[in-house]
Amino acid sequence: MAARPSFADLPLRAGDPPYSAWGLWGLDDEIGTLNLLTDEIVAAAAREEIRTGVRISLDWPLDKLQPPGFGRQAFHQQLIAKPPRTVNDDVITINTQSSSQWDGLRHFAYQKEKLFYGGRSMEDFHGPDATKVNGIQAMAHSGIIGRGVLLDHVSYCLKHDRSFSFQTGRSIPLSELQATAAFQNLTFRPGDILFIRSGFTAMYEALSSDERVKLAQPNPPMYSGVETGEEFARWVWETQFAAVAGDAPSFEAWPPKTSPSLHEILLSGWGCPIGELFDLESLAAHCRATGRWSFFLTSVPLKCPGGVASPPNAVAIF
Questions:
Q1: Backbone angles phi, psi at 171, to 5 degrees
Q2: I need a surface site. Which of 61, 85, 214, 318 has the fewest CB within 10 A?
């Protein structure tokens, strides 16, 4: 693996977008920071984290977000009877970002430069000369598998009498996440897959149907999440997370207050997958009960050539 430059060395090449690391893992690379998940790191995570065999799904139901935000199509299932046999098929229609998801490297470009990870453009994805480059299938090949770590920001806030609302666009500062890690006595390793519980899915399930519709109406909507900016990006880079995820709809506070956003830096700068709308409630309860905040994660996105995003099919194993 190539030597990892410091955050201060980014971008690696003159003229590339801010903080980008294009070329670090080769000019044709399509998995970015997932290169940190070496065989040795994954094997060590399996040896150390799988102890009891407890398994917890991290996928929210596909039909839970009704209606989705950002003007996205809602989930639909068509159940098809196959007479005269007693047999059923079904056809499902989903926007791959309408429930738990990994954002892939076709999702969000550097907006000023209009370039995706590795310098790819919209012309690479659309039109007569389109290819499958940067599609989610590249991440699906070996999966997003390794040591997962959970920061339970909700429990930290409750313990320290801090209020938090998802409909204010409040940013979670890095200092609170670091304090959460200290509160949990959690340390990080290169290649960790970071999860941040901020309580969105639990809050959403408590809403009425009218409140859910109201929440989805603004475009763009206003959601709380981690604080956008250089400080958080530097921490992700220097801690060497392979991927980041949470239960919030956009991971970072939305709309972002600074430019470039974390979506630009992480997805298009580093090829770092961003997970959103993960169901972390059962995971957090088990972590609290056992005092363990790390686990073995297995997540294999859909092998959809040219796909933009995917349900995670994620399971935490203890």
A1: -90, 140
A2: 85
User: Residues 15-70: pLDDT tens digits?
Assistant: 999 999 999 999 999 999 999 999 999 999 999 999 999 999 999 999 999 999 89
Instruction: State which amino acid sits at residue 81.
Output: A
What pLDDT was estimated at residue 170? Answer: 80
Q: Are 70 and 309 in contact (CB under 8 A)?
A: no
Render 89-114 in DSSP notation, one character per residue.
Answer: EEEEE--TTSSSEEE-TTS--BTTTT
Q: Calculate the CA 173 to chain-centre distance.
A: 18
Tokens of 165: 């609302």
Name 151's bridge partners.
Answer: 196
Question: What whole-number distance in Å separates Cα of residue 141 and Cα of residue 139?
Answer: 5
Decide: 68 and 61 in contact? Cβ < 8 Å: no
Helices (H), ranges, 185-229: 200-205, 209-216
What's residue 165's pLDDT? 64
Contacts of 72 (CB under 8 A, 6+ apart): 95, 97, 98
* Calpha distance 148→206 (Å, rounded): 27
What is the rounded distance in angstroms from the CA atom of residue 86 to the CA atom of residue 88?
Answer: 7
Please report which helix (H) or strand (E) contains residue 139, including its range: helix 137-142
The DSSP result for 253-312, as a single string, is -BS-SSSS-HIIIIIIII---EEES---HHHHHHHHHHT--EEEEEE-----TT-SEE--
- Helix, strand or coil, per DSSP, at residue 148: strand
Residues 250 and 224 sit within 8 Å (Cβ to Cβ): no
Contact 121, 105 (CB under 8 A): no
**Side chain identity, residue 53:** G
Tokens of 168: 């204010």
- What is the pLDDT, as a whole number, of residue 287? 98
Are the C-beta atoms of residues 318 and 286 closer than 8 Å to each other? Answer: yes
